[in-house]
Amino acid sequence: MSRMRGRLRLVESEPDTAARDLEPESSPGSSPTSSRRAASPDRTAGRGLADLDDAQLVALARNRDMQALETLYRRHVSFALRLAARIEGSTRDIEDVVHDAFVHAFEKLGDLADPAAFRGWLGAIVVHAVRSRMRRARLMSLLGLGCAEAADLDAIASDRASPAVRAQLAQIYALVQTLPVDDRIAWTLRAIDGHELEAVARLTRCSLATVKRRIARAQHFLDAHFVDSQKESAS
């Protein structure tokens, strides 16, 4: 990516989160093949639900095991909240969006082809929900019934972000609010939340080629309009 993405690496998720957000959860000592087998009473007997991997929890949750549903929620809610906040640039109503996404996911567990991929599947539902909300907000703004909100930097910036980086983020979010929603989402997932291109494609439910085009359009716009105050003050 271009020079701007390099700067934004300063405010990404912690190193052990963004790169692994879409990887299946596995319990200690489990193998990739065992994590994809459905849970059965004899395999889970005597084990706490927190020790089970996602595939096993999904199998139980499909039978409306409320404790398994709660365990899935607690395991993945922080990921879902962070994902929604980074895309939206704010925490306003994010909890409601994520709650609705979980309700939808739990109602549609039978549609999940690979139970071990629950986190990525949930992420795509969250992204779709945020996209719908952003499109409604854009329409309301065009009708004069709403206005764009400033980014909530406490919600999206890393604790390690310097004041200069936070100022950059504020400017960037102000700029991306003017982009088409799909371009904004793809670029944010890639440049700010640090997902690989293939993961962005899965989260947005579109092809890799489409994701690349959206990110390129957004990056071209930002390269043309972003003002680096640090460089200007140094010149």
Number of domains: 1
The major beta sheet can be summarized as: none
Termini gap? 25 Å
The computed structural class is: mainly alpha
What is the mean pLDDT? 79
Count of helix runs: 13
Silhouette: elongated
Strand content: under 5%
Order of helices and strands: HHHHHHHHHHHHH
Radius of gyration: 19 Å
Query: pLDDT below 50 for ≥5 consecutive residues: which ranges?
Result: 1-20, 24-46
Number of strands: 0
Quick overview of this protein structure:
This protein has 235 residues and is an all-alpha fold. 62% of the residues lie in helices and 0% in strands. The model is unreliable at 1-20 and 24-46 (pLDDT under 50).
Describe this structure as you would to a colleague:
With about 240 residues, this protein is mainly α. The chain has one domain. The N terminus is likely disordered. Helix 5 crosses helix 7, helix 7 crosses helix 11 and helix 10 runs antiparallel to helix 11. Helices cover about 60% and strands about 0% of the residues. The chain is elongated, with a radius of gyration of 19 Å.
